[in-house]
Each structure stands twice: as structure tokens, then as C-alpha cells.
Specification:
Blueprint: H1 3-36, H2 38-54, H3 61-75, H4 78-113, H5 120-150, H6 154-177, H7 183-207, H8 225-249, H9 252-277, H10 280-289, H11 292-328, H12 341-355, H13 357-365, H14 369-394, H15 396-422, H16 427-448, H17 458-483, H18 485-503
Helix pairs in contact: 1-2, 1-6, 1-9, 2-5, 2-8, 2-9, 3-4, 3-5, 3-10, 4-5, 5-7, 6-7, 8-9, 8-14, 8-15, 9-11, 9-12, 10-13, 11-12, 11-16, 11-17, 12-15, 13-15, 14-15, 17-18
Length: about 500
């Protein structure tokens, strides 16, 4: 199978997984709030953020292993693949054990530090079960995931996760409808995670029969983990601090408000990530095979596509989010869920978060981990300093503003390095293609938000959002044909070629 076909499969399965995950999440969260209250929903979200925070111990080993395996996979050097795989597997077992030990300690402390009206045993087991499942996942399946990513077979990984997700979420909804104890929600999630882990291992052992964990490990081949850990630290602080801050100060009920908005924007963000990250391994292989001038041409087209997708999806989100929230939170009376400043600042954060991801992927796939580390150190300093200052001045909104500042800083640094230093191209070309589409998107949101929209049912919401999506897609295509005719026609021709090859 060609790299292009694998990339398309990766993107399609990733989009399906993201949509299902996001939609199930929105439905399950609503059912949890209505059945068990905002307190338990806030606790679940806090647990997830603590787990994400502790994932810093992974230290970038998955990415470092993937990059290390590119060359031996291309050359079909089985002995070297096994040496790297064996080293990776041993490292992940240690990481899993460390994760479980620290997680167990946090589970005990959570009883005393989490501000919640729930029973202590509910708080403890919610934490413990989640940490247990993730530690098994890290220890046993992470090296196999790296193998699939190297071989551009994320579509297999996505397919496994889709099947398990559907099963576990349906069982969760049944448990809620039967009014089972709230801890059953965590038990079901734990079983689903363990099931995913063991299916991935079994699948990889069948597909890669040459794998031999008894091969002498070559730890020296896995480079850049010291640099990559800075990316993990910044990313973890960046994504988890808001929820942790709220849960330990304001309380888990306000976490519930934040997390519902955040779950919508996470769905949007992950949907775009599915497209952004689909060709990541393909770029890694391309960088090892072709010269930079060829890679830059492909990269420019890809970046143009991502900017348009990003602006289109965020415009659609900003038009629909408040009418949707009024419909979604009907009957949730224990806390006020209507908040106008959260979606505005979250949309800005998502825009700058995703804008630099293509450049960040090039840095990592080219093995420029030291550059990535230096950029992440600068971002971490900006994040911590602005967070301390702004939180002291204006409270929780200051944390979101500091995250926005950090996202803008990361975008500037990574985009400048990749365009100006790595590819030795003018940054002006990048800016020229971005400003018009941003202005156009802001105008679209401003005009459509002048229309009062009230959804009386989810059927009406789906119908309206589908029609609006089609209208906006037409607007963006027309806009690009007028202002960026060359890029638009070139990308359309490339897409038609891929479609024709698939239909033959």
C-alpha cells in the first residue's frame, strides 16, 4: 500500500474515532450530570487531567522509538528493528511501574485535596482504577503502538479503538439508565482500556511475526528522550492546569461547566488533529528519502489545507456553540452553564494550538529534538510566569489567557524555525496566505452570529448544522478560488488523482 493511501486511511479512521469519541463523550457527560450530578462529572474530568499530567513520565519514548524505527523499517533490517523494539519494551515496563506507583500515591492524597461533596471511597477508586488501567497500557502496549505508527498503520490502531469505544460507551449508557452506582462508570472504562491493550498486543504479534523480545536491546538507538520530555511537560501543564486549578479551589461543580465547553472544543481540536497528524509518519519517511525542496512543496500545500480546515471548523463552532449549549444543558439546574467568554478564548487557543502543529511535526520527524526542547523551554517559562501573574491579578480567566499567550509563542517559534531556518524560505509567504482567511473567518462568524438561533430538538440542530456546514464549505471554496487560485486548483487535482487511484 502506498504512503498516500495509508495517509488517507489513517486520516479517515482517525476522524471516525474522534467523532465517535467526541459525540459519545457529549452524550455520556449529559447523562452523568442528569443522573449523578455535576460533582461526579467534575470528578471524572479531574481524574482524566491528573492522568494526563502524570503521563509526563512517558518522556516522549513513543515518538523517539517511532523515529528510531524509520530507517530499519525502510531497509527491512529485522535484527535492528528487534533490538530497538526490545529496548523500547523494557523502558515502557519501567515507565508503567513508575506511573502506577505515583498514581496510587495520588489516589490516596486525592481524598484530602479534591474539593467535592462525594464520598471519600468514590474519589479514591475513581483515581485508582484510572491510574491502574493506564499503567498497564503504558507498560505493555506502548512499544507495539510505536511499531504501528512507524509502519503508517495507525488505521489498524484506530479500528481497534473504535470497536472497543462503541462497546464500552454503549455499556456505560446502559449502566447509567439502570441507575447503577457511579463507580461502575469507572469500572467499565477500566475494562475497556485493558481490552484495548490486549487486542493491540495480540494483533501486532500476529502481523509482525518476526518480533523477538529476547533480542539484545539497543538503548542507544532511541535518542532524543531528554529533549522530548520538555515537550511532554509543557503540553501536560498546558492542558491539565485549568481543570486541576478549578477542582482544588472553586470545586468540581465549576469543573463540570468548564469541561462541557472544553469537551466540545476538544472534539473540534481532535477532529482537526486527526487530519494534521495523519501524514506525520509519511513526512518522516519523506524527509529520509527526498531533498528538502521537494518536502517543502508538499508541506506548503498541506499547511494551506490545514489552515482552511481549521478556520472553517472553528467558524462553524463559534456560530453554533451557544445555541447548542442552551439545548444541551436543559434540565441541568445545579450550576449555570451559560458562559460567553469561555468559547471565545477557547477558540483562539485552539486556533494557535493547531496552527503550528504541522511545523512541530516536521521538527520531530526530522529528529530535531534539541530544537524542539529549546522552544518548549521558552514556552514553559512564558506559561508559568504569565500564569502566576495573571492568576494573581484576575483569577481563573488569567490561566486561560496565559495558555493563549503560550500557544501564540509556540506558533511563532515553531513556524519561524521550520520555514526560515529548516526549509530556508521566507516567513512572509506563510503570513500572506493566513491573514486573508483569518479575516474572512472572523467576518463569517460576526455576520452569522447576528442571526438568533434557538434549537428545540437535536434533530433540528443536526439539520441546521449540516446545512450551515455545506454553506460554509461553498463560501470557503469560492474564497480560495478567488484569492488563492493556484494552490486551490493544485490541491483539487492532487485529491482527484488519489480518488481515481482508489476507485481503480
Amino acid at each position: 500500500m502506498t504512503k498516500s493511501k495509508k495517509t488517507v486511511l489513517n486520516a479517515v479512521t482517525s476522524v471516525i474515532l474522534t467523532l465517535l469519541n467526541g459525540l459519545f463523550s457529549i452524550v455520556v457527560i449529559q447523562r452523568i450530570v442528569l443522573k449523578y450530578g455535576s460533582d461526579f462529572n467534575g470528578l471524572n474530568s479531574t481524574v482524566t487531567q491528573f492522568v494526563n499530567f502524570l503521563l509526563v513520565v512517558e518522556g516522549g519514548f513513543t515518538l523517539a522509538t517511532t523515529v528510531a524505527l524509520f530507517s530499519p523499517f525502510e531497509k527491512n533490517e529485522v535484527r535492528e528493528i528487534n533490538a530497538i523494539f526490545s529496548a523500547s519494551h523494557r523502558n515502557f515496563k519501567k515507565i508503567g511501574l513508575l506511573f502506577f506507583s505515583v498514581g496510587s500515591f495520588i489516589s490516596v492524597l486525592s481524598i484530602f485535596f479534591i474539593k467535592s461533596s462525594l464520598d471519600a471511597y468514590v474519589i479514591f477508586f475513581s483515581f485508582f482504577l484510572t491510574f491502574f488501567a493506564m499503567s498497564i497500557n503504558l507498560a505493555l502496549s506502548s512499544s507495539y503502538k510505536a511499531l504501528l505508527q512507524t509502519n503508517q498503520r495507525e488505521y489498524n490502531l484506530n479500528a481497534i479503538q473504535i470497536i472497543v469505544l462503541i462497546i464500552t460507551q454503549v455499556v456505560t449508557l446502559i449502566a447509567i439508565s439502570l441507575s447503577l452506582h457511579m463507580l461502575y462508570i469507572r469500572v467499565i472504562a477500566t475494562i475497556g482500556s485493558l481490552l484495548t491493550t490486549f487486542i493491540i498486543i495480540r494483533f501486532c504479534k500476529r502481523e509482525y511475526s518476526f518480533l523477538d523480545l529476547n533480542e539484545k536491546p539497543d538503548f542507544d538507538k532511541i535518542k532524543g528522550t531528554k529533549e522530548l520530555i520538555f515537550q511532554k511537560i509543557t503540553g501536560v501543564v498546558y492542558s491539565t492546569v485549568p481543570v486541576l486549578f478549578i477542582s482544588m479551589t472553586v470545586g468540581t461543580k465549576f469543573v463540570s461547566v468548564y469541561i462541557i465547553y472544553n469537551s466540545i472544543f476538544n472534539l473540534v481540536k481532535n477532529l482537526i488533529y486527526s487530519i494534521v497528524n495523519a501524514p506525520r509518519s509519511a513526512f518522516g519517511l519523506l524527509l529520509s528519502e527526498r531533498d528538502k525542496s521537494h518536502v517543502y512543496k508538499v508541506f506548503k500545500e498541506f499547511e494551506f489545507i490545514i489552515t482552511n480546515v481549521l478556520c472553517l471548523v472553528l467558524s462553524l463552532t463559534m456560530i453554533l456553540i451557544m445555541p447548542f449549549m442552551r439545548l444541551y444543558t436543559r434540565g441541568m439546574n445545579d450550576v449555570d452553564y451559560v458562559n460567553f467568554y469561555l468559547p471565545v478564548i477557547m477558540s483562539m487557543i485552539v486556533f494557535f494550538e493547531i496552527l503550528h502543529i504541522p511545523s512541530g511535526n516536521i521538527i520531530n520527524m526530522a529528529g530535531k529534538f534539541k530544537i524542539g526542547k529549546n522552544i518548549q523551554i521558552i514556552a514553559a517559562v512564558i506559561l508559568i510566569s504569565t500564569m502566576v501573574i495573571l492568576n494573581t491579578m484576575i483569577g481563573f480567566p488569567g490561566i486561560l489567557i496565559s495558555i493563549l499567550f503560550t500557544a501564540i509563542s509556540l506558533a511563532i517559534l515553531e513556524i519561524y524555525y521550520v520555514h526560515h531556518i529548516f526549509f530556508k524560505q521566507s516567513i512572509r509567504k506563510f503570513i500572506i496566505t493566513k491573514i486573508p482567511i483569518i479575516i474572512f473567518s472572523i467576518l463569517i462568524v460576526f455576520i452569522f452570529n447576528k442571526i438568533d438561533i434557538y434549537f428545540t430538538s437535536y434533530t433540528y440542530f443536526l439539520f441546521y448544522s449540516t446545512i450551515l456546514s455545506l454553506v460554509l464549505i461553498c463560501f470557503y471554496i469560492i474564497f480560495n478560488l478567488i484569492f488563492f487560485n493556484y494552490y486551490t486548483k493544485k490541491i483539487m487535482k492532487r485529491a482527484l488523482k488519489i480518488v481515481r487511484k482508489k476507485t481503480r
